[in-house]
């Protein structure tokens, strides 16, 4: 049964009542209990209300993964406002755009970014208040310690309903200005329930989160932990992978959510002789296609761990997952719709496709966003009329096909597919072929302009640490495994590929590079 009528922060209050002294979040060597986080976020929420934040106001946070970010998020929701997580990697111009576009009335900011933040707020004459986290470095705004330890005041009930906005998450904006994805309390509560249901999360779980909380996949580890009552071991990043992986044994971690670039890095430490990873119960992947070669390697190295291959997008968080019992038979599939959702595939005329026909994936259900903030035209293109009168469904822009049993297979972003010599090419097929080589760590295939091909196939490849990359080997392998059209015309071996702070490869940047 879905959690109808819930407000997201009620999950935290429930766990604080049921597991008051249990660690909710561990940062470094410091454990923070559910009760501590609940009480601290009450105090910060009261302070926000005293500073003028009201129901429906937007509050941003540009903070590294930290307990302050967790508390700021819960406090914003308790105050009745809408939380906007912002990556600490964004530049001043983009930060200013997000603050101006959202009409934010408050911002939590790390003191180490004071110059960037002050440049951003000055560029838009930001009218709101800034709460600085860290050493005092600015002459304006208030300090975190002031809002956390100020005199207590009654927290006013903002009289929210589950259709009120809860989060605005800005997309990466690779093809233009970032768009704010609007999610309601009902959206997020449904998604947290659904994800924790198919992952079979239990209060005994301990989840290691190396993903940024500015990324919805990372943020959902905190939200799911609050609903279920499990502990999250929160890392600032995956910059020092061996040290991070040692914490799996130290804290008996049971769940490890990641993206392909993280799992590729983990595999560099195989066969894990110096690491204790025996407590892992499950691994989950989304954000980008999980290479079959990496799945097979992880299954061999971690036989006790269940692997969940998932697909999602910001506009509805998570869409589908492959039942782990079918992983061997359908290793390249992302499965079926998550609980309380439905998916189907349509052609360019919005007619439903049959089995094995490639088309655009459509999603319906309580997970689908309210729309894009202040973008009515883009919202109308993405949310369209469904089969039921008055219902809007999400056109994802992603190409899929479905087998006879209803399992989904990702082909690529509509924008990623290109024509080479007059025929459509999906980078996914070429990437999967190159990942078959055990010395290949990362791959990104793009189309680049070419005088005779129209668009030529170019493969960007990163070799595993200590392994030499050979363009000749790459080409010969592709010639053995792929039809001639799909053999890349160009290969570029690189030490690293450009990535977002959430670990996604920046394919648009590689396309622009040519």
Automatic annotation (TrEMBL):
This is Long-chain fatty acid--CoA ligase. It holds the Pfam family AMP-binding_C. GO terms for molecular function: ligase activity, forming carbon-sulfur bonds. Keywords: Ligase. It comes from Rhodoblastus sphagnicola. PANTHER family: LONG-CHAIN-FATTY-ACID--COA LIGASE, SURFACTIN SYNTHASE SUBUNIT 1. Residues 429-504 form the AMP-binding enzyme C-terminal domain. Residues 13-373 form the AMP-dependent synthetase/ligase domain. It comes from the Bacteria. SUPFAM superfamilies: Acetyl-CoA synthetase-like. PROSITE patterns: AMP_BINDING.
